[in-house]
Amino acid sequence: MEKSAFLYALCGSQRKASTNRRLLEALRDNAPAGVLIEICELIGELPIFNADREGENTPAVVEEFAAKIRASDGIIIACPEYAQGLPGGLKNALDWLVSRDEAPFKPAMIAHASHRGDFALAQLAEVLKTMSFDLVGEAFLRISLLGRSEDAQASVLADSVENGLLVSALVKFCDAIHCDGR
After folding, report:
1. SS3 readout for 125-177
2. pLDDT band at 3 (very low <50, low <70, confident <90, very high)
3. What CATH number should be reported for the domain holding residue 157?
4. Distance from C-alpha of 168 to C-alpha of 13, rounded to nearest angstrom
5. Between vectors from CA 172 to CA 160 and to CA 74, what angle results, nearest 5°?
6. What are the backbone dihedrals phi and psi of residue 133, each rounded to the nearest 5 degrees, phi first?
7. What is the pLDDT of residue 182?
8. Count of structural domains, the chain
């Protein structure tokens, strides 16, 4: 029998009403048995990356963030595109991991809540590959929530649950990282 999974989800938007957060919440709330998804609440608390603050000078919140990454079986990242690029907070969070050992070979899945944003997606994929994350491309999930009312977003997400799109992406990710996602 395969093991259960702990997946840590990073949301590139810090907005409470973020469509990417809503997508991550839907993934969390509809995860198959044995799959626990925790959405990171630390990104907005991380100080601006400064290499002088690494090692023994690393802030406690960075250590807490890195410990969650280390403890996870894989990460899910959902982010919007800001000015044709990655949101600064998400990039900052990833920068804190560059010279540490949590990122290399850690499986990663990208989820996206918009019909656009290909520049940010390409940049995110490049950053993750450069950091030696194991990007699981077949688990990529795109569900267009951007520009829709809350009710319309709920309807699209309900349809994605009903037609199996959400769970299918998680199962593909879990299959790739050899955890129980069924």
Report:
1. HHHHHHCCCEECHHHCEECCCCCCCHHHHHHHHHHHHHCCHHHHHHHHHHHHC
2. low
3. 3.40.50.360
4. 24
5. 105
6. -65, 155
7. 43
8. 1
Q: Give the pTM.
A: 0.94
Q: Nearest to residue 69, comparing CAs of 131, 132, 8?
A: 8
For residue 96, the surrounding DSSP H or E stretch is helix 88-97
Taking Cα atoms as reference points, which of 154, 128, 152, 151 lies closest to residue 139? 128
Place of tokens 């469509």: 19
pLDDT in tens, 43-95: 999 999 999 999 999 999 999 999 999 999 999 999 999 999 999 999 999 99
Decide if 182 is inside a domain: no
Residue type, 145: L
Of 94, 110, 93, give the one whose Cα is nearest residue 20: 110
Domain extent at residue 125: 5-176
Exposure pattern of 102-116 as b/e (b: 16+ CB <10 Å)? bbeebbbbbbbbbee
Residue 29 has which token pair? 């709330």
- Partners of 3 in beta bridges: 179
